[in-house]
Amino acid sequence: MNKSWSVEEFLRSRPAFVPALVVLLLLVFAGQLLRVARLYSANWDEAHHLYNGYNILTTHDYLVNAEVPPLVKMAAAVPLLPLHPSPPLHQGSSHTENAFLDGRAFVFSNGGDRLSLGMGGERRDSRASS
Length: 130
Prior knowledge:
single chain, mainly alpha, 2 domains, 7 helices, rod-shaped
């Protein structure tokens, strides 16, 4: 006997199917969000590229992280020029290590959201609040 099922009959015969499917799809979506956030968020080298670009534009020092070409770093740092963020004191390590340590200090001591979005707002002096 060839009995054809419609979608409505299938869903009526299995009332837990739709909620289980919704939960499964939400879990897959959450997993994708976490993976993308982990892979593509500003969590490793964006801060040091921003710091390097600002450092090149203000002090003409190309030695910090010199293995990366400066044009993109400088272009990313141009919106920071009117904000006059305070550069951090050097950590006393090699130039490549400074790129990461000083970059993180540069972004987070100057209000990371303000710098990463390139928006003005009030200038925050990190030395006065420390």
